[in-house]
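Lab notebook page, bench 4
Experiment: in silico fold of construct C2
Operator: M.H.
Input chain length: 875 residues
Purpose: comparison with the prior construct
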Amino acid sequence: MDVITTHVNADFDCVGSMVAAKRLYPDAALVFSGSQEKGVREFFQKQPPDQLNFLRLKDLDFTTVTRLIVVDCQHSSRISRFGELAKGGAVELVVYDHHPSSSGDLSPTGGEIRPCGSTTTILTAHLRAQGIRLTPYEATLMMLGIHEDTGNLTFPNTTAEDYQAASWLLEQGANLNEVADSIGKELTVEQVSLLNDLLLSLKTTSLKGVDVSVAHASVDRYVGDIAGLAHMIRDMENLQALFLVVSMADRVFVIARSRVPEVRVGEILKDLGGGGHATAASATIRGLTLIQVLQQLDAVLKKKVDPRRSARDIMSSPVKTLPPGCTIAEAQERLVRYNVSAMPVVDDGKVAGIISRKIVEKALYHDLGQVPISDYMHSEFYSATPDTPISDLQTSMVGGDARLIPVLTGEELVGVVTRTDLLRYSLSGDDIYDLARDASLVKSREVEGLMKRYLSPRSVQVLRDLGRVGDSLEVEVYAVGGFVRDLLLGSQNMDVDVTVDGDGILFAESFASRFGCRVKSHQKFHTAVIVFPDGFKVDVASTRLEYYVSPGALPTVEHSSLKTDLYRRDFTVNTLAIKLNDEEFGHLVDYFGAYRDLQAKVIRVLHNLSFVEDPTRVFRAIRFEQRLGFKIAKHTEDLIKNAVKMDFLEKLGGRRLLAELVQILREKEPLRGIQRMASLGLFRFIHPSLELTEPLEALLEEVRYVVSWYQLLYLERPFEQWAVYFLALCDPLSDEEFTASCLRLAVNEHQREKLATARRQGHELVAALEKRFLEQGRVENADIYFFLRALPVEELLYLMAKSGNPEVKKWISLYFTKLQLVKTQIDGGDLKKLGGRPGPRFREVLDAVLHARLNGTVGTKGEELVMARDLLQEV
């Protein structure tokens, strides 16, 4: 007897597949292995399946089954009593399934297993090939199966074959009204988008023998019914245990579903502040970033999903021991020789105590080298058996400060568990989450293509040379930071930063000696700069971690791994790395979802204390947001507002604050950055009374216009754009307040005096020009020139923007475009030939001649010489 079945809690794809299989195996009996989902039951209440002749499980004589056809499942545990039959080998087993062939424990001899949107699609292809016709009822059930598992043909796992199958079923009379009514509530646009993101990030990891799947996504507004999406993904991918981690606005939601007893999701999510049942649970977390929640989940899963591991699985054996009569000095030599921090002391075959390197070093400090270790060993200690759970070992190690735990069978020492053993166990295996999933989609050849497109051939060669030097030193070399970010965004950035998983200074020196470069090294920060003969530079750093003694303080630096090095950075978009070593040249490394945030155009911090540890990141967030055209993520913006409220920026040194402000004011569109600063309440850190009023915003807009106009003139006279905006920004301040602001920002004395003087003189000189205009009805070119020439370009542009008098704007424009370019044709040498004696009088004469030339009363060199001679004779 042939039997067609499917997994318990059958959905529409199960039913559609069974109906299709029945047409391929017409003599087979249709038997559900268990219950059906609610939607299927409701459909059968409206459309009874009488014509399909389903056989009840309790009415089946299992001894008569000779062939078992299983659809939409490869797990013996999910087909109830049929599982034993399928694995027993007594019947022929045929399986049709669209899940990966490695996803279950059934070993079929026939059928078809391959990826596509639904199992119904696979069977439909066989029906079409054999020219089998369907009834409208059968076609409708099969259409329901395809639509359910492909999200109405919108899920990322949907294939062209699913569309073809649906088209054929429609020709067979499938009723789309029934499909629309039975599938249930349609997904919203936001849910479909979120579902796509979750499926793209989905990663399944074998954790202590159990498959655990984690998917994650970030959205800035609330999307409902994540639990429904969890059910969809679990069923679509046939998963044992699934955790969805979704960041929405200021919260992170975790939804978990499990089909296996080893993963009790209610107990797991309890550690994250949530709860639920063993098979279904959830948690809502505030105050943490997506990355932090994923890291916590990773740690909890590694701790909780551990049904079988004990001391015997991780202990070290055989064990090096010491006799109780060994001296302190001898113990030190043994501990150093074997590079361990503690050893058991064994007396007559029994563990008598434990001696640690810490105790030995203190005893040596007190000149006790010849004293036996039995005098100072720890005679009270925690011991374990081979069956002691690892969780108990962890408690003793952490809570009891044990460095080593003897493992005993009776009184016999069979092994020890050290902190290293426990750490190695805790860190074994891959991370459960995979924020780098999107980056893995970017192939090395694509990165190489971007390099060739946006970098010069020489720059690409330098990157390859850096990797080859790393190969020769057997260290990994990565391009990191803004260079990688901008390369992926398709913009050129020649500030190359390189990180070496080793000694960065040694690497830089090796590279420099090979390619004839110079090196500037900074031992304190483990960094160096490679300077090429033509001035091109590459910044090199060792992979390192940084920690902050107090908010706003400069970091303390220590060597670390690449992942830790990237985690210390400011925002996810700056955590990308490209490997430069020859074999993996162009491989993109992304531990923290940076590539996804680049695609989503989001600025996001890595952890919640980011702005506390380094408040300058507040300004950098604004700068990157405006420069890249991105948006600061809501949770990150909330953290900025909290840092402002807690006055962490007050702890910043003025020089660091000024440096960040200057960077914003140097951007292509500084006004947007200024507006963002105002919206986040940052003006008070420049001066308490400063506000972005409508008049000030209008002035800054005028500055933007004036600066753009001046840049288009392409004059040789350079200027500092930031200073123009800074003068305008501080325009509402009094002279005393302006000076106070400069002091707060640690503007150096020379620059401070220059800005203050120009600010004061500029107003006075423009007022004098306006007065002359009122008195005489006109202002001569020479007056404009000699009034304005003492002012720096920055002050002139500020005054041009500030003045509401169109005549003033015209005068300054005339000065820039024409008058400042006017020069006399004679010089001091000509005055000497006329018999003049060098001195202050020369300057007076030349200015007088220039005055005449500006006003048009002299035009040729001869006329200038005549005028100069007359002036010299007047003395």
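Observations: The first strand starts at residue 2 and ends at 6. Confidence is low (pLDDT under 50) at residues 546-554.
Next step: discuss at group meeting.
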